[in-house]
Every structure is written in structure tokens, then in C-alpha cells.
Amino acid sequence: DAYEEAGDSPAARETARAHALVERNPERASTAWLRAGTLALEAGDSVSAREDLWAALEYGTTHDGAQKAALLIDRNPWPLEGTDELRLGRTLLASHSWDRSHMRLAPYVTENRTPIPADRDELRLGLGRALFELHRFSEVDAMLSPLIGDETSPQLSTPALYWTGRAMLERGAVSEAESILRQLAEVDSNSPW
Fold this sequence. Notes:
The protein is mostly helical. The protein has helices at residues 2-5, 9-22, 26-42, 46-57, 64-75, 84-94, 98-110, 120-133, 137-144, 154-171, 174-187.
């Protein structure tokens, strides 16, 4: 902060990077990488910004620093390599950036884009919720219906039933919603859903 106040952005960035490299706490490390990336962006150094912001994502999808870094990465026209699209989409989904996460992740679930992720069903569940939050209620059932069945674990089928039932209620399909919600109660009567 002292370097920033003195107008020395390169030194402030290097201090943030040095802090990120030694920080053991994932939340604080991702925040330090976010800070370094933001300073690099402000200085017009897109190569360093890209490197630092992606480093923030290395700490998982749940940390504030990683989620804010994902939003910045998403706004920039940087090329994505390998599984970057999946990593970015997962982090955007965790940050409740519904539209952007849906745009990035839906092809992996609905079009069999490779690589097919091991957590495809979990992504499908997250995208079903994203569609609900985007008020695209008529699309929720198609996204979540593969998760509703005896062969699916309750950890996936229970929230899939919940979001499907809610979407049906929003569409005004009350009798269909009642049927789905009864099914939800049969699957897990103790569920918080």
C-alpha cells in the first residue's frame, strides 16, 4: 500500500507477488495474486496481469480473490489453453456469474465438448441453477432431467428436483411442480431442499 500511495505501481505489484508466493492461507494468497494482477492491468501489462490473475485461480473456486480474478479474466480477450475454459467457467459459476458461467460451461455438458469433465453431473447441476437464476425456467428441466432418477446419487438428484420444481412453479406448471416436489420428499424427507 505504501508503494501504491507513492505512485510506484511496479514495486507494489512485486510486493503483492512476493506476498502471494509465501502465503500459506489460500484465501489470502488468491487475494494477493488478484492484487498483483489488478496492478499489472492498471499499468497496462497484460502479460503479467494474465499470469497473476490465473495464479489466483490456482487456489480453488470458493475464494473471493479467485472469483474476482475470474471476472477480470473473463472480461479480457486473452486466449484460453487446455482446460482453462473449464477452470474459468467453474470459478464464474461459484461466483454466481450465472450468464458468463453458462456461456463457458454449457458446451461441456450439452454438446460433449472435449475434454469431457469428470464432474460433468455437478456442472449440469450448477448450470441448472444458473438457468433458474437467469429466469430461463423453460430450460431448467432439460438441463437437470438427466440427474433425476434412481441411478443418480441423492447429492445430485435432490437439488436437481428442487430447482426443477421451482422452475416449474415459476412457469405456472403447478401440477407438474407438485409431482416433482413429492418426488423430492420421497428421495430425502430430511433434505434441506
